[in-house]
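Troubleshooting: if your tokenizer reports a length mismatch, compare against these two reference records.
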Amino acid sequence: MLSRYRVYRYDQLDAPVVTAGTGAVLIGTQNGLFPDLGFNVEGEMGGLWAGEKKVCDGFFFAIDDVPLTCADACEVNPAATAFHYRLQAQQLHIVRCQFIPDGASGCVIELTVENQRQTPRMVEVSFTVRTDILTVAAARGEDGMELGRDVGEYDEVTQAFYARDSRNPWHTVWGADESCRVLQADLPQSVYGFGNTRGKGINGRLFYRLRVGAGAQATMRLFVAGGVASRSKAEDALSALRAHAGEMIAAKEARLMARMEESRAALPEADLERAWNWTKICGEWLTRDLPGGGVGLCTDLPEHPSLFGEGFAQAMGALLPLGGGERVQEMLRTLVRVSAEAQLPPGRMARRVSRSGRIRQVGGVKESAQFVALVHRVLLWTGDVQFARDMLPTTGLCVSYLRRATRGFEDVRGDIARETHLALAGQAYILRLLGEDDTACRSELEGLAPQTQETPEAGASLDAWAAWHGRQGHVEQMIGCLCRMAKAGAPGMPGAMKPEGAGVLLSARSAAGFIGPMTQSLFGLAPDAAGRTMAFAPHTPIGWDGWRLENVKIGGASVTLTSERVSPSQAKYTLAVSEPGWTVVVHVNGEEKRIAVDGAVSLVMED
């Protein structure tokens, strides 16, 4: 149940919060407000975004003429965000819950009013949307675009408000369920009880009445949608939400419930457990569908909502131990297609892609090397030979580009040395998997200067220290770094361990420095799905009685790992695999052992 992952916040409610879907994202603060947020376009990065277009700055409520200005509590779960308001003088408890259905270009708001009186009553609901319809490019004066003032009107027939940018064909719409009739509509100069956010938006207010029984509660649904090019498409977006919101919400909850069961960790450290499990959801919140097909990973929220971007390979690689193998494959296919359609030079990959599929920055040798290495990592987790066959032409071009750019690997700069090693090793693996000759790649790899593991500098980041401690076998020190990372994110946002840069709430790559050490140096899992083998070198930190990691997807198998402390220096490890034909590779007393797994295998190992 998703309720297992609920987080309640009662303090620091001015911290940001995100509610996201594959087509839209809503960013505000945990007190239920929508202040001017962000630096990429100063003060404009919060609110509701559908693709590249901002739909509105936010929405605001008043109940019986009392503005809901600050929530008493914020409730975050993987599918929705809810805000609780206690109106004690009015004897009302209000819950405002917001969802972004998968694929929708808008949000659903469920407003629940609980009547604490012992007599029935009518409650008046005021619903105001503050528009600020824009794109980042237009707001920054790029691409020859210029923002206009928003204009809007209420339509009695559809019982909804419509707004658009006066200079561009960008539209927004808002209203309620068709069963909720509008009593009155107006365009106030400011949002009652809140004032105005900055920008060129308008305020469109709708009034409703809701009958609530004695000691009972009643719920109404409201909708905001937009980012579309015409009034008719805005109508269609609203109609779709009105007709299918219930089933869309149920489908998303079911999908996320299944997602949370994959790679589910149970750990003695509550902060680590919550961060690991929520990192899957942060990955979901950063995943976006492209209108022309395919999927990409958003760089961060709210500052840089472009796809792929800085550290894309690191970010996508972190999804693999969390059950994201198929999704990463889809992302890489999308990246290859977008790069090919843009006719980039052979071996060059897109580095930053807009939601519409437009390439805003082209990668260099580092990104091409990272692409090949990431394809290799995907294959280790999925063993998908057809994916390897599909990627081989592109990885071959990337290696050729690396060869040209480094004069036959004679001039490999220090800042790309590690990536070059990984790319050549990855290409050799891909060639062997497909029965091709990998001699040239192996020879070039052997000719590179050997890689050294240097100790991080004193001021290095926590993830750098965690990775180093993990490689050295300092598991307790690694856990200490990871615990600090788990506590360092935005309050109430587990999985956002290490926000990067001013204004950044969620960063796609921030999880990589957490997931990597956990997978490699705690759970000790290094699969080769194509070879149907798993290297297994787990650890149990001092003071831990054990841990459990369930339903890890490796190839077509589901793997569960369990640790149980049996002595101060030893633990019993059990590895269970859902299908036959797998081999576990372990080192016991310095000797490598290969053990065929028939259901499960248990070993007592020293830490």
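Reference record two:
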Amino acid sequence: MKIKLLILLSALMSVFSATAQRPIDGLAHRILGNMDTCFVFVYQPDTVDYFLIEPDPDNRNPFSGKIRITGNNDNSLAMGLNYYLKHIAGVHVSWLLCEPIELPVEFPTPSKTIRKEALVKDRFFLNYCTYGYTMPWWKWPQWERFIDWMALNGINMPLAITGQEAVWYEVWKEFGMTDEEIRSYFSGPAHLPWHRMANLDGFGGPLPMSWLEGQKALQQQIVASEREFNMTPVLPAFAGHVPKRFAEMHPDADIQQLSAWCGFEPTHFLNSSDPLFAKIQQSFMEKEIALFGTDHIYGVDPFNEMDPPSWEPDYLAKVSQNIYTSLQQTDPAARWLQMTWVFYYKRKSWTPERLRAYLTAVPQDKLVLLDYFCEKTEVWRTTEGFYGQPFIWCYLGNFGGNTMLVGNINELEKKLDAALKEAGPNMTGIGSTLESFDVSPQIYEYLFDRAWESQPDVQQWIKDWGYARTATHLYDDEWLLLNDSIYKDWSFYGLGTQLVARPSLEGHGTYYTKPYYSYSNDTLKKICKAFITSFSSKDNVHYFGPPWTWKDTYQYDLVNLFSQWMGNHFMDIRNDFTMAYKNRNIREMERQVEIANQLFADVDTLLNTHPAFMLGPWIETARDWGTTDEEKDYYERQARTLLTVWGGPVLNDYANRMWGGLVGDYYAKRWNLFFDAVIKAVKEGKEFNEKAFGEELSKFEHKWTESHTKYPAEPLELKRELPNVSGVPCSTFEAARTIYERWMEE
């Protein structure tokens, strides 16, 4: 009865919140400031999500820029506003708070009425891993911008797993564990996603109590805001993962160890048939709902990248049946959402017989599946559409935060179009399961635009995107060339340039640094040249301000394109060094080292001109969670570890990324240790022992994670002004122009 009253109260509070204020007005003011008065928002109920954009019929002054946006709820209205901004006004709203929103002097009046309807009812976003690779250090300002961005892109089903450790703390305390035992069971903040998926326990712990309290308060803000925009936050529930200490306290319980993951100690799994399972589920859900409310959908993901205790179909059916029953007994309206990554990752083990038994043991429409990696493999096509259970078609797109230009909009469009035509009614949604925010944001925004657009013109979409980035159509051809010739590959694990790879004479130093790209770096060079040489005060559109005013989005793209070209180019330098080594040409080896160090310096400078590509803010925001100097150092160690050695013996460099500070103080130093060791071997007449050097390199890497070097937290300001134009320095432009003049100019 208690839990049912909590659910009813949560529903009533949601209704009151929706009627007491207009969330769309608050969002519009946050992103538009006083220019929000240019818009009129009108609620109009409908059976589908839709928006309508038109000149305000009640506006008597045709030149005042009033635009009327109608929609069935705040989510649809926000999507309509963003559609207008991106496709008509040339304004881009980033998912990152560090990227400013740049508005025109005035908003253009729509030339025609535009109506769009959502093609699918569910628009899902996020991945457990995103909470480690992108969001672990966020506070409310970053979350508020991100939730606004989700609303603006029509997302209505976000994964919402912040703060759950505060709930688990109370659960395990109720079951007799001590404070120290519980907090030592949790991993450190950056590695919590993999603890939550039962992959590891205790790594980087114990978790400070201040973290638990801070995250609990943050989650309450997050879910309240998401619900204001008609989103259905997916809260976590119990999947069977229990502490080792809990297993010791209950020797008669049906608890088994799961298979070890990536070199970590095996974790413990409570069989869902054991009576303790339902008790733990009830305890967790009651406490979670009391703190965060509920929308009756829960993420439960047993066996992520691990083998279950048994592969017998009857056992697998019992697991899923009991998990659902435990949800339903606490919340009668419960639905279960599961990612299907494990069915792809362990596809040889998850045979049709086993998967059918597991999926069909749950009542129809009570289990929603995320087809996790559809750009690579559409699992729905190999499972008879998940045997009738509803599923969401997802684009993954990024692993570990690797900063590479990947993502094929043309192919994505073909795959999505085919799925919408062929999947049938149980394909209920479109989503993205990215592991980290990417440096190719256009493909994600295209994906969610596509959820509202039945027959998109991809080339026009790219032109609109390019205009929103630069406020000019000067680069239309370059954006189309980028789309068709550079953005050709899908992401895969450990993708990275040779620069971020662990040093080696040939190939790449670890499995998780693969310097692969299928395009010609000369084509990227041509595009970079156009972006830096074609821009002039005569060509620049003044719509966003005076001549020589660069949009931040243009600067972001300069960093993105030029750093990718330089990262690719470093492979040539490494290969020339290796050739000189084979020829025992010390002078040429030393010359290549000088060239490499100039490249490192130039890339690091470029990256440090834009906050989205800087290590400093990542470290500073991590330290900001600390309440003592000891905690601040602890969080910094966590932040450094995840990006580099990761943890365990396997995942070194998995989260590699081209960031200012990381290039200059980590990757460049690794390469110089390598260069010095190779040259020393040649001078001594020896063969270079790469294995022995790897052991020495590991010492440097782990020492770096313990260090406290301070990196710039604000973008560099380069002072050289543009020729013939006074008082208008642009640090990113100057850094890119230096690279062009030194490295690209014929």
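Descriptive notes for reference record two:
- Confidence is low (pLDDT under 50) at residues 4-20, 536-548, 721-728.
- The radius of gyration is 26 Å.
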